[in-house]
Specification:
The complex is a heterodimer of chains A (199) and B (67). Chain A is of the alpha/beta class. Helices cover 37% and strands 17% of the residues of chain A. Chain A has one domain (3-191): NAD(P)-binding Rossmann-like Domain (Rossmann fold), CATH 3.40.50. Chain A starts with a helix and ends in a 6-residue tail after the last helix. The chains are: A alpha/beta (199), B mainly beta (67). The interface between A and B is medium-sized, with 36 and 18 residues.
């Protein structure tokens, strides 16, 4: 498939990004660059100085809501991207109202509790939709430990499955970037296997 | 009894064994888990009610903070 065919194929899909931190911001940027035109972004947080070591934000955006800052950054790449923004903390009952019409979902939360909640909600209410989870990407090195696996019919997991964030093992741009781009790469691969939708 | 646990054959205590019993037996240190028995989701509040039988296929995904 050439570049024009790829862009044309994926332009009609709507992608849900659950969490706009290190995983969500970088994965959204990668997908926007290759031609995804419709996003649903959800996050309740604001950009903080400590986020700049891995998240796709800039120092002038400190204090802004992440959904607004990420919208602005995506629109700086291409102006014709449409975005639905949800500036809120998501609970189990929010997943269908917020993401119900998405064609594919990226799990990009930081807390394990939220990852668990989204995975159960998707498997309960949206079992036909693809969910790509980011799981285990703290620290430095161990590139070979990072993998992608298919855990269920429509649930995929990217990460090393083991390194939890801690004071001695912070989440940092290189490994978080690898996993977020692995999620985006898998999303693109799966979108290209789906029947294209009209823009 | 023998079950398939995360794609490997494993010997676990004979039944009746719930999903939660199995989690305790396996000494999972991560608390945030997603569990399936024979491909079906077992939600976290159902793990005391769903039993695992000889030959069942059990999959547990542990979720880790970071993102």
């Amino acid at each position: 498939m050439n570049w024009d065919q790829i862009k044309q194929h994926i332009a009609g899909f709507k992608i849900g990004i659950a969490g706009c931190g290190g995983l969500g911001s970088n994965a959204a940027v990668a997908l926007a660059r290759v031609g995804v035109k419709r996003f649903v972004l959800a996050d309740f947080d604001v950009v903080e100085p400590s986020n700049l070591n891995r998240q796709y934000y800039f120092s002038k955006q400190i204090g802004q809501k992440k959904v607004h800052a990420l919208r602005d950054n995506l629109l700086q790449i291409y102006q014709d991207i449409s975005l639905e923004l949800h500036d809120k903390m998501l609970h189990f009952e929010d997943i269908v109202p917020v993401f119900g019409d998405c064609d594919l979902m990226l799990e990009a939360f930081d807390k394990a509790e939220a990852k668990q909640m989204l995975t159960e909600a998707m498997m309960c209410f949206m079992p036909d939709k693809v969910l790509i989870i980011g799981n285990g990407m703290a620290g430095v090195g161990s590139f070979d430990a990072i993998k992608q696996l298919r855990w269920s019919e429509n649930v995929y997991v990217c990460g090393d499955q083991i390194t939890e964030i801690s004071a001695d093992q912070p989440p940092l741009a290189p490994r978080v970037g690898i996993v977020s781009n692995m999620q985006a790469n898998l999303a693109l691969e799966l979108l290209l296997k789906m029947k294209p939708k009209k823009e | 009894m023998i079950i398939t646990f995360n794609n490997r054959l494993e010997e676990v205590p004979d039944g009746p064994v719930t999903v939660n019993d199995l989690i305790k037996f396996k000494n999972f240190t991560f608390k945030m888990l997603v569990t399936k028995v024979n491909g079906e989701l077992v939600k976290k509040d159902q793990r005391d009610e769903v039993y695992v039988k000889e030959g069942d296929k059990v999959d547990i995904l542990h979720l880790i903070s970071g993102g």
